[in-house]
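Today's session is about reading a structure prediction critically. Students often jump straight to the picture, but the first step is always the sequence itself: look for stretches that repeat, for charged clusters, for runs of hydrophobic residues. Only then move on to the predicted structure, which in these notes is written as discrete structure tokens rather than atom positions. Here is the chain we will use throughout the hour.
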Amino acid sequence: MVGSLTNKELDSYLRKKVIGVVIIPAQSYQTLFSYDGNIKDDDFKTALSSMNPCACCVNTDRADGPGLHWVAIIVFPRQRLLFYYDSLLPNKEYKISHEIAMFLNKMAYKGYSVYQNNRVDQKDTFKMRNQTRVYNDMCGVYAVEMIVMLDQALKTGKNLVQTFHEAHEKLRDSGFIYSLYLQIAGRA
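Below is the predicted structure for this chain, in token form.
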């Protein structure tokens, strides 16, 4: 059975796969950012002030909510790069939270180049045991894999911006995403 990934599953997978980027524990946008876009999380503040690359899977639900949707924020302070990856962008009915938008704007104002993806051209459904299943549970997979791919680019010296765009293309492969989901959820 397919189900949404938890913050513990996302963090566990990232800690096994990612070496060069500091992983900030997955959490709600409300515990990570204040309403005016300032960073509230001490681990995130420390990583940025020490110029360490850092990443976080951020849930778009309120801190007291059950969780709605996972996105990835990856920051490379030395290169002044910030990547915001969201599998639902762009979508007219979907809006980035005010706090995340303010954070992205503040980082741009501080001289960071801020990159956002276009929507993953994912099919609305995929086949699994002759059943049609909606892709809405896969957002955490997209978020963690973008972090992993950018971490690998950092380790190998590849261009981070180019990697961001190439990774976005790779994430269009529904078979890849589903097999990765099984691996993260410990069902592979």
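Discussion point for the tutorial: The chain has one domain: 7-184.
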